[in-house]
Records
---
Amino acid sequence: MSDGDNTIELKITVPERQFIAKEYPANSAKDPFKKDSFDFELVQRLNHFDYPNQGTTSLCGPAALFYSILVDRPDIYEQAARELWLYGKTKIGKLEIVPTESCKRPSGSFYRDSGRLKVSGLDWITLASLRDSENIIFSYGSAEDEAAGVTMWGMLSEWFEKVGYEKVFDNISLSSSKLEDILTLNQYQQKGYVVVSLISAGMLTGLPNTDTSNKNHWIVWNGTITGTDGTTLTDQVNLDTIVNLKCFSWGEVKPWVKENKPLSYVLNHTFGALVFKPVL
């Protein structure tokens, strides 16, 4: 630009892309972090077309947190996601999310043999970033990582509290739940509290039956455990009563318990829950 005898040089700088998968160069056809793909996924998410989905990763703990934030404060969810994409870091309340370079430059395949993504760019940016930034021992740098993604209940509780939730109850146990435990959680759910339950994933529809002692998955209740006909459970309920639970898991909110399973089956696969009052 010329101003009389003076020449003014304008430089427009574009911030460096924060997330680039090693196998898929920036803006290539299969780049999972392209801006247009990210923007589309975020719009879909904010319209509740879908929900946080860990895909083939072991990021159910971060998924439970980001699902809760999405439901309670979609504005905060959007801000956190956009800041992570733009700057590679964000802060929600007192929870700082600053992923390492290995998380921002993940290795390995992001696609299944069918061509579908193992985990979306949006979910990697949010879920993996949280798990990685809070992981002292391991970095989270591949959609195929397993051990690095497992979330213990103490850490999950801390995440919820840091972002602004108030923990009001905790009956997480090393042994399976008893009827009175479930009845207590039902009461909290009816009062509008956030119930985040630790289960064995084998009880969920579409998943193979697994050892009921495996405490390996987090879900967020979206209703109470009831009889399949809507019957309310009481302390006199028969443990052979067929039940179900509408909850959040793997990107969907639906009745997730395998069909025709009795209450005793659900009890054996459940290990209590963390209960929070949403005060974001």
---
Amino acid sequence: MKRVSGFLMAVLLLAACKTSDKKKNGEISPEDRRKDSLRMVEKQKAMEDTANYTTIQWLDSTFKNMGKVKEGDPVDVTFRFKNTGDHPLVIANVTAGCGCTVPEKPEEPIMPGAEGTIKAVFNSSGRKDLNKKDIFVDANTKPSRSHILSFQVVVE
């Protein structure tokens, strides 16, 4: 288990090198790299330590009917949530069921009592008729780490 944790930490540290905070010449400063690495390590610790798990309340339905749109129009969908637990809420990963939907997650932990959003944009080009899409959320939550957000839209 320690080997797996060590390997995950190494992968996370390497992944932390990818950041949007670049200097004008395109290089990442050592300080920004260090901050990104620390942030990734903290997120990983929170996800591994079940004592740091918290609870989440979805303020909106986890299913949204987005109605009808014209083909080619983007569809923006937002799911609001609240950290109802005693520990910071870390949204570790948010993925979509297909490439036509691009989700966006909060990068910083959501403190107890605070609210946050998960947003997604659906590309309706070439997607005529009824579309049902899922967004998969992985967070340090109990009783389950996994959450499924869904929406549907009719493309005309």
---
Amino acid sequence: MINQQQLDHLINDIEYLKYEIQSLNKVISFVPYSRKPLGGESIIENLLSINSTQSRIATVLEALKKQGEGLELEDFLIFDRVELTEEEVENLSVSTVLKDIEVLRTDLIKFLRDKPPSYFEIEMTEESKTVSVLDVLWAMVTEERKSLKEIAQLVLTYQSDKQFQREIASRPKH
């Protein structure tokens, strides 16, 4: 049985991640967000994966409204990562992606706050295992935390690189 305290904790975590995205908006334009680190994802790809996941979860929640229990999650590819070519990345606006995440997140929070605890117990199937709405939402939070940690690490790396380049440029030439 899911209690209100568990739900409040979940919704607060989901809301907190919204504020992290808002904070990112202040620094993101100062870093090369489209640059892919060796063997990794660019900042914008990470952001698109966050947006894609929450969009797919919204689709799952909408399907639950129509179908009810027994939904097959494999059909939704909820946690598939977004991979782009360099050309696709160049055509994206990071501020638009951040705004999309924020709008979707606001809608998701509002939707979840209106649901009774029993809603979060609705069961679905994922790879022949039973999972609840609560499980899926916690998985989203966990994935987002990983992505945001990666993004923060890249931002710090790029800022350190920029500082190092300034220090080198300011050294007197012998």
